[in-house]
Each structure stands twice: as structure tokens, then as C-alpha cells.
């Protein structure tokens, strides 16, 4: 795999080819990944996988016309052809007065911050031992009847970006992941449970036996789901699924949706959207953060930002194109996937915890539901309407009771955000970290 420095040079070289072919400006992004994984099932080796991939994306501008192309063929002849084809395509594209690179005077300068994203690769034998330890612990949980397997994986990636107007930068990151999935019960009464962890450093992952134990316990806890009545009631989102609420928030404040007038939040910038005291931050410079990066997908600097400050929505997430359309400055939230134009996304999101423990959060709930799994995508960012299949556990008289499945929870995101109450039980183990979130007044459709 190329080093970040070598990857930057590869990007710069293909931009030179494009300008020689007639492009007025351009940028190139290089993304490389390698991974290896070992899966164990029922104490036996199920699979061993290893993969490597490299991709280069080139975006060129001819006046206000642009084109974006990508390739995994990185030899000189292929890159010559890529640059020529991109320029030809751009000349035939319609004009876009908002097209262009990021503002030159805003480009990131200096050396990329060391965010501690790189670590040692485990050996295949270490991966095998980790997967076996997880599965052994999971299968030892009373009530577990079968295994879907345990997987241990390691990956490494390199990202580099160069532009024709002065930016060049790259960084490397490692990725350790561990997961186990178990089955409890038999026949039509089978239930599944899983647990997983991921980190840039293996030392940030909990012991393998604990991952396996939780996977087994979750499967057993789901056995014999009951029914529950329909009607309005409090819904508590487990931290594993509460992060989806922040995903909807990010979608709704992305520049592309604001430009199109397609967001239920488009008129609420600078206004209260969440309850007072709610703090939601986006931090791309978090040390060892799962989505940390030293610059954005257009070469702009990034920084920590409060998306919601004391309940108030602070603004939009903008790449250069959406910023121009709104007559604003980009916010450093551009992302690149390789072959396409920049999009917009967040980085490490945190919904700051509240003061109440989980037990205190649910203490006054006479009838409610704790959601641990969500199904389907019945969410409209245009209207905020929310309806998803769910499963989890009943809450009865302030206590978590038996499992339920096949229910639907519904509401409107504007109302849900306004009534969301965070507990204090946050764990900083994901790219999106939230505590348990209670939302009163949602509609639950039972069996």
C-alpha cells in the first residue's frame, strides 16, 4: 500500500495530466484499503479473508463545466486515459455557476494533526484466537442454542487529496473490529443477539470474552417476546440505536437538503429545536475518534463544532457548492467517496449525557418500551414524519420487563427532538455516541 506521501504525489501527477489535457482546475482523491479477517463458528475455522483495494477519483473543471471520474487501474497509461476522458466529459457537461474548487484562501495549511489513528496489525493467529475466545464465551451462556459465528478483523487505510490550487495532504488509519452473533431457542422461537466493537487501537476494545458474553445474553433475553398494547407512550432508545436520531439530524442540516428546501428544519436555524440544555457536538479532531480526519474532502480545515448548543440549532453543514448556493462559507464538512463529487457529512458525533441514570430516566414510566433494534427506513426528512419497525423490551412501572417484537413506533422528528431527554449512561465507543434517549408521547402500534 502507498504511503500518504506517495498517495499525494499520485494525486498531484494525475492533476498535472488533466491540466495538460485542457482542464482549468481539478482535484484528485486517492483511497486505499487492506483488510484481513478470521471467522470462527462452532469452534471451527469458518473463513479467512484478505482484500486490498485502491481507487483514484479525479474531478476536473473547464470553465464552469465539470466532470468526475474514477478508476482502480493506476498504471501510467490508464491515468493518461482517465485525465483525457475527464476533460472531454467536462467540455460536454452543462454549465454550473456554482461549480469550482474550495476557496483558495480557506485551504488547510501546515502539517496534518496526529490524531493517533495508526496501530500494529495483529497476526492471523491472534485474529483466530480472538474470534475463538468470543465464540467460546458466547456459547457458554445458558440458553444459547447455536452460533452464527464470531469475527475478528483488522484493516488499514490511506486517504490523500490534492488540488490544482495548492492543497496536498494525506493520512493513514488502522481499524480493529470484533463481533459475535448467537442464536437462542429453536425452530420458530429462535432469537438472535449480537455484540461488536471497533477501534483504531486494539487496546480500546473491551475483552473478547465480554463481547461474546453480551452477544449470548442478548440472544437469550429476546426469547419468548410478548405483546403490548397500542397507543401513545414513552419510548426509550437504547444507545445502540439512539445514534440513528443524530443521523436524521445530520441529514436534515446538510447543505444539499437546505438548498433544495427539502428539510423539515430549513426554517429553524438559530432557533430552539431540542430541549434546553441539549448539547450535540461534532468533533473531527477527536484523538482516536472513529471518524477523525485532519482536513475535509475539499482540503479545508476542520474543527470541533456544536451542532446543537443549549437546545438551539446552530446552523448547516456545507461543502463549497452548497455554500455558494446559500451565499455562505463552507464549514469543512465535505467528504469524498472516491469516484464522485464531494458530499456532506459529520464526523465524531456526541449527544452529551444528561444527569439522570437509566433507572432514574424510566422510574416514572407506567407503560412504555425500550427499543433495542430498529427495522426499515420510514423517515421523511422533508416533513420529519417518522415510522419504523422496532423490537426491544416493555417498561412496566419503572422497570424493564419482558421482550417485545413486531411493533411500530411513530412520531415526527421535530416533536421527538423537542421532547428528547438524555440519560447519563453514555459510552464513547462509536463514531456516534449517545446515552439512552427518552421521548414521551410517541405512538406505539403493538400486535
TrEMBL record:
GO MF entry, a single one: metallopeptidase activity
Family matches, as InterPro entries: Metalloprtase-TldD/E_C (IPR045569), Metalloprtase-TldD/E_cen_dom (IPR045570), Metalloprtase-TldD/E_N (IPR002510), PmbA (IPR047657), TldD/PmbA_N (IPR035068), TldD/PmbA_sf (IPR036059)
Gene Ontology annotations for the cellular component aspect, listed alphabetically: cytosol
Residues in Metalloprotease TldD/E C-terminal domain copies: 230-446
Biological process according to GO: proteolysis
Gene3D superfamilies: PmbA/TldD superfamily
Limits of the Metalloprotease TldD/E central domain: 120-223
UniProt domain Metalloprotease TldD/E N-terminal: residue ranges: 27-90
Family: Belongs to the peptidase U62 family.
PANTHER family: METALLOPROTEASE PMBA
Entry protein name: Modulator protein
Source species: Croceicoccus mobilis
Amino acid at each position: 500500500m502507498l504511503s500518504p506521501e506517495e498517495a499525494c504525489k499520485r494525486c498531484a501527477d494525475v492533476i498535472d495530466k488533466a491540466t495538460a489535457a485542457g482542464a482549468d482546475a481539478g482535484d484528485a482523491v486517492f483511497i486505499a484499503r487492506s483488510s484481513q479477517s478470521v471467522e470462527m463458528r462452532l469452534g471451527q475455522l469458518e473463513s479467512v479473508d484478505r482484500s486490498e483495494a485502491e481507487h483514484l477519483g479525479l474531478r476536473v473543471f473547464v470553465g464552469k463545466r465539470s466532470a468526475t471520474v474514477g478508476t482502480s487501474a493506476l498504471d501510467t497509461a490508464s491515468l493518461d486515459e482517465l485525465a483525457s476522458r475527464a476533460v472531454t466529459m467536462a467540455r460536454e457537461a452543462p454549465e454550473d455557476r456554482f461549480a469550482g474548487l474550495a476557496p483558495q484562501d480557506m485551504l488547510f495549511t501546515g502539517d496534518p494533526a496526529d490524531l493517533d489513528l495508526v496501530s500494529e496489525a495483529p497476526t492471523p493467529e491472534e485474529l483466530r484466537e480472538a474470534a475463538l475466545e468470543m465464540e467460546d464465551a458466547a456459547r457458554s451462556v445458558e440458553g444459547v442454542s447455536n452460533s452464527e459465528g464470531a469475527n475478528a478483523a483488522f484493516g488499514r487505510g490511506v486517504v490523500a487529496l490534492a488540488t490544482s490550487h495548492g492543497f496536498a495532504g494525506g493520512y493513514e488509519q488502522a481499524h480493529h473490529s470484533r463481533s459475535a452473533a448467537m442464536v437462542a431457542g429453536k425452530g420458530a422461537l429462535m432469537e438472535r443477539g449480537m455484540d461488536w466493537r471497533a477501534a483504531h487501537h486494539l487496546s480500546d476494545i473491551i475483552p473478547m470474552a465480554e463481547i461474546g458474553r453480551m452477544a449470548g445474553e442478548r440472544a437469550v433475553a429476546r426469547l419468548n417476546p410478548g405483546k403490548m398494547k397500542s397507543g401513545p407512550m414513552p419510548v426509550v432508545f437504547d444507545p445502540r440505536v439512539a445514534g440513528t436520531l443524530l443521523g436524521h439530524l445530520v441529514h436534515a442540516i446538510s447543505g444539499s437538503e437546505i438548498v433544495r428546501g427539502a428539510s423539515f428544519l430549513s426554517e429553524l436555524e438559530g432557533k430552539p429545536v431540542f430541549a434546553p440544555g441539549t448539547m450535540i457536538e461534532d468533533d473531527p479532531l477527536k484523538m482516536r475518534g472513529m471518524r477523525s480526519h485532519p482536513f475535509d474532502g475539499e482540503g479545508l480545515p476542520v474543527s470541533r463544532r456544536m451542532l446543537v448548543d443549549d437546545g438551539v440549532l446552530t446552523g448547516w453543514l456545507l461543502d463549497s457548492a452548497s455554500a455558494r448556493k446559500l451565499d455562505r462559507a463552507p464549514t469543512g464538512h465535505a467528504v469524498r467517496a472516491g469516484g464522485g463529487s464531494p458530499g456532506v457529512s459529520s464526523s465524531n458525533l456526541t449527544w452529551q449525557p444528561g444527569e439522570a441514570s437509566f433507572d432514574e430516566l424510566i422510574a416514572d414510566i407506567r407503560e412504555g418500551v425500550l427499543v433495542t433494534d430498529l427495522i426499515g427506513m420510514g423517515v421523511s426528512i422533508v416533513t420529519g414524519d417518522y415510522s419504523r419497525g422496532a423490537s426491544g423490551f416493555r417498561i412496566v412501572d419503572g422497570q424493564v420487563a419482558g421482550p417485545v417484537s413486531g411493533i411500530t413506533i411513530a412520531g415526527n422528528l421535530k416533536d421527538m427532538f423537542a421532547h428528547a431527554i438524555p440519560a447519563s449512561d453514555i459510552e464513547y465507543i462509536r463514531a456516534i455516541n449517545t446515552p439512552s434517549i427518552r421521548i414521551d408521547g410517541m405512538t406505539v402500534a403493538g400486535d
